[in-house]
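quick q for whoever's on today - can somebody do inverse folding on this one?? i tried earlier but teh output was garbage lol. tokens:
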């Protein structure tokens, strides 16, 4: 398109935006990526050194094909950049068979024929002895294809590959507004620069609702914590304590993994479940952490993973955008060809980053995504409202 800076401007270069930039540039699209901070920063939701990868997606059956495709694309990005980004250590989901975590994983496995192994309580304790105080009926679902992804390295690799394919990248550049015009979109920055393009892809994470206020998003502050055991213990190695989610009596869920090779810390955390974490303003959120941020988790760990430590050795505040139904928003609000959004990760989106990037590139080019994502339609909430009237 003549008279424009790019065909597409990607606003926000967290994991989803970085992967969208990589996919668009790789297809020869004139694309510019804009990030308000530096690459792989700790301000949004794409940080923390490690993230769980699994294809047994309990959050929605439609996410299983997306996770499978994401795994293939992660391997493609590894080959293209020569960077190790996904460590297939296996993943473990623990709890009652009819609970939200294990029950959802088993349904996903049955529906999609996933390769899993179900462990009874005795075998679960033998394989992962760090897990204590298991309920009598608890089981473990082991997914050999699961493991860990590396968020900061993934972002740097994807943006590096996009740059190599011709993408422009602007960091430390805050987007203040999007103006839809007769010919496309104008992306306004805090420094006064205006980028003109045929369309904007908005992958701004916790700031998505600021730029596209029609989306019903809220921002959640979630502490991320690491613990250093008092002494080295084989139970806490990554081999014996692979990445996991565990549903406890009462419904709370803890997650984490053992010590990474060469490290000394366990990464352990608490899932929100809508009960523990505050909704915040992404620009004024409290970034410091205090004992109140980990008190519930520490009480659980004293019984569930004893010996991990009474207080974290390191902690940071993570923020993410959440939708009313806990599913993503990916698509064109109102069907507008000038605007494409991808966000509302709801704390379970990182594992799908590469697949989302591919889907965004498909949609931007007017193609059907390789994986059906109709359940992420941004307009579904408007339909829900009309249905209740």
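ok took a stab at it. sequence:
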């Amino acid at each position: 398109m003549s008279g424009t800076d790019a065909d597409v401007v990607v606003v926000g270069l967290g994991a989803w935006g970085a992967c969208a930039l990589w996919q668009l540039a790789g297809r020869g699209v004139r694309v510019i990526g804009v990030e308000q901070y530096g690459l792989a920063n700790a301000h949004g939701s794409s940080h923390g050194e490690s993230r769980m990868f699994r294809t047994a997606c309990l959050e929605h059956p439609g996410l299983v094909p997306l996770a499978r495709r994401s795994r293939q694309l992660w391997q493609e990005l590894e080959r293209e950049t020569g960077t190790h980004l996904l460590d297939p250590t296996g993943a473990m989901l623990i709890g009652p068979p009819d609970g939200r975590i294990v029950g959802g994983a088993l349904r996903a496995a049955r529906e999609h024929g996933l390769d899993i192994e179900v462990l009874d309580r005795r075998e679960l304790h033998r394989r992962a002895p760090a897990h204590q105080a298991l309920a009598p009926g608890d089981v473990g679902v082991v997914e050999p294809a699961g493991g860990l992804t590396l968020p900061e390295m993934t972002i740097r690799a994807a943006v590096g590959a996009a740059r190599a394919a011709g993408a422009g990248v602007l960091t430390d550049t805050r987007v203040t507004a999007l103006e839809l015009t007769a010919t496309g979109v104008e992306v306004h920055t805090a420094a006064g620069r205006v980028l003109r393009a045929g369309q904007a892809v908005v992958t701004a994470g916790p700031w998505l609702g600021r730029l596209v206020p029609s989306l019903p998003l809220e921002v959640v502050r979630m502490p991320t914590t690491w613990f250093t055991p008092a002494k080295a213990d084989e139970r806490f190695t990554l081999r014996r304590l692979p990445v996991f989610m565990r549903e406890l009596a009462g419904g709370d869920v803890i997650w984490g993994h053992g010590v990474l090779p060469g490290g000394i810390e366990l990464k352990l955390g608490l899932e929100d479940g809508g009960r523990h974490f505050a909704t915040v303003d992404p620009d004024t959120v409290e970034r410091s952490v205090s004992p109140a941020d980990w008190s519930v988790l520490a009480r659980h760990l004293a019984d569930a993973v004893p010996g991990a430590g009474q207080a974290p050795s390191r902690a940071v505040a993570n923020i993410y955008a959440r939708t009313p139904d806990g599913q993503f928003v990916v698509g064109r609000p109102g069907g507008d060809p000038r605007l494409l959004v991808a966000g509302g990760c709801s704390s379970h989106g990182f594992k799908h980053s590469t697949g989302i990037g591919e889907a965004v590139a498909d949609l931007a080019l007017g193609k059907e995504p390789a994986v059906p994502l109709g359940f992420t339609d941004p307009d579904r909430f408007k339909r829900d409202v009309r249905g209740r009237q």
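fwiw The two ends are 42 Å apart (CA to CA). also Confidence is low (pLDDT under 50) at residues 385-389. so keep that in mind when u check it
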